[in-house]
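Need residues for this backbone.
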């Protein structure tokens, strides 16, 4: 069980003490706008993946009239 308790105490992203950061309105707006941009790009990529634009450009050169 000692290994299990060590794994439970392992924290890859420890919390920062509240004294070292401050929440601002501009930071919140940047977070919201960047999240919306990421979601827009994600849905755009999913839509393009499910509905690809297939274009088969080929020309028939009719040099012989027969």
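Answer:
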């Amino acid at each position: 069980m000692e290994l299990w308790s060590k794994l439970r105490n392992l924290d890859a992203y420890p919390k920062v003490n509240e004294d070292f950061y401050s929440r601002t309105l501009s930071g919140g707006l940047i977070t919201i706008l960047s999240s919306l941009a990421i979601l827009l790009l994600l849905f755009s990529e999913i839509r393009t993946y499910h509905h690809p634009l297939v274009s088969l450009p080929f020309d028939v050169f009719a040099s012989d009239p027969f």
